[in-house]
User: What shape does this take?
Amino acid sequence: MARNRGDKEEGPEKLMGLLKLVQILSLLVIFVAGVILGLATSSHINHYFTSQAQLFLTNNIASAKLSDNNCTVVKPREKVDFLNMERFVHPDNVIHSMTDDQVFWRASLLPQKKGYPFDRVPKVAFMFLTRGPLPLLPLWERFFRGHDQYFSIYVHNPHDYVLNVSSDSPFYGRMIPSKDVEWGSVSLVDAEKRLLANALLDFSNERFVLLSESCIPIYNFPTVYKYLIRSEYSFVESYDEPSRYGRGRYSRKMLPDIHLYQWRKGSQWFEIQRDLAVYIVSDTKYYTIFKKYCRPACYPDEHFIPTYLNMFHGSLNSNRSVTWVDWSIGGPHPATYSGGNITEDFIQSIRNNGTQCSYNSEMTSVCYLFARKFAPSALVPLLSLTSTVMEF
Ligand SMILES: *[C@@H]1O[C@H](CO)[C@@H](O)[C@H](O)[C@H]1NC(C)=O
Ligand SMILES: *[C@@H]1O[C@H](CO)[C@@H](O)[C@H](O)[C@H]1NC(C)=O
Ligand SMILES: *[C@@H]1O[C@H](CO)[C@@H](O)[C@H](O)[C@H]1NC(C)=O
Ligand SMILES: *[C@@H]1O[C@H](CO)[C@@H](O)[C@H](O)[C@H]1NC(C)=O
Ligand SMILES: *[C@@H]1O[C@H](CO)[C@@H](O)[C@H](O)[C@H]1NC(C)=O
Assistant: This one.
């Protein structure tokens, strides 16, 4: 009985034990699964952090290596002066790919701030408007020698002409991007504006003189430099010429913008200060009127700048030219002097023939600094006079 009972009693106890075992086992399974899952996840995360850390460390190591063990985390970037001040204010080369409109626009920028944030030695821009060769080049080279700091040269050639000068000449590499010029047409004014605009890109250029291949200097460089830099006025010939060669070239189609009483005539060979150069390259309105209505027998190069300055900036102009020329022979062209005409007395008479001219608020016997026109054969006799007469 007892066995039975025992059996009876044993039966349910055994069942309870089995159930407990199953419970424990399943808990164990869940626990192990959890541990495995947990381990897997954490190893993934670990791996992620490790790789990031590796990247970071690798970088550090690399930069530390690059900086010569100087404990610098990031290697300093090499300093490249992309917005170079020196090249902006003093372009060292005249070659560029800007169009006329682009270079006129750049040249028209006027600083609003007083003074210059660099050591500015004012320079004279000598702008040569040529038909090709420069036969009097050796005379000019002698004139410029030893004064590099005080001038810049710009040469406008027919566009396919290459000026061949030695690399130690001040004319070397000074040919600006040019276009062909038709004498007597508005393309001559274009060339003048092109020279002015290119010369304006150098912020040290203060005075701008237009010269041709047949012009010569009649004083030495220091005299010319002082005369121009110290002048309060520009030297643009500008006068009212009542004849058909003056007023006769005016067109009533220019009304209402330009009146006959404002119309002026003057030599193309000007000398102007920086402000006036900026105004001239900045103008489109009056240039367009001249282009449209000043056609032969009206010549824009003899009227545009003299009229424009008279209308707006007359008070800055002396109304006379510093380039001597001889019209006494009559006709449409001035006299050209060749080798046989060159004497000491002749050059002296251009330098001073007794006439006085106004300069700032005084009078002076120095009226002209340059002279034209001189043929290539004048070169040798002129070179023999430079030390005795022109003093250079
Ligand atoms: C460490 O940096 C300093 C300052 O930048 C520098 O003068 C020095 O030459 C550097 N040393 C090395 C070993 O690069
Ligand atoms: C330029 O001038 C040099 C020396 O005067 C001469 O040897 C050379 O042939 C010239 N070149 C051209 C393209 O005229
Ligand atoms: C030049 O002419 C202008 C008129 O265009 C006049 O205002 C100016 O005073 C003249 N200059 C001199 C120095 O006489
Ligand atoms: C230059 O000299 C030549 C020959 O001696 C002469 O015929 C000519 O008139 C002179 N020219 C001038 C502009 O004086
Ligand atoms: C001096 O030169 C000027 C300009 O060329 C001229 O008008 C004047 O008559 C000359 N004077 C003398 C005395 O030759």
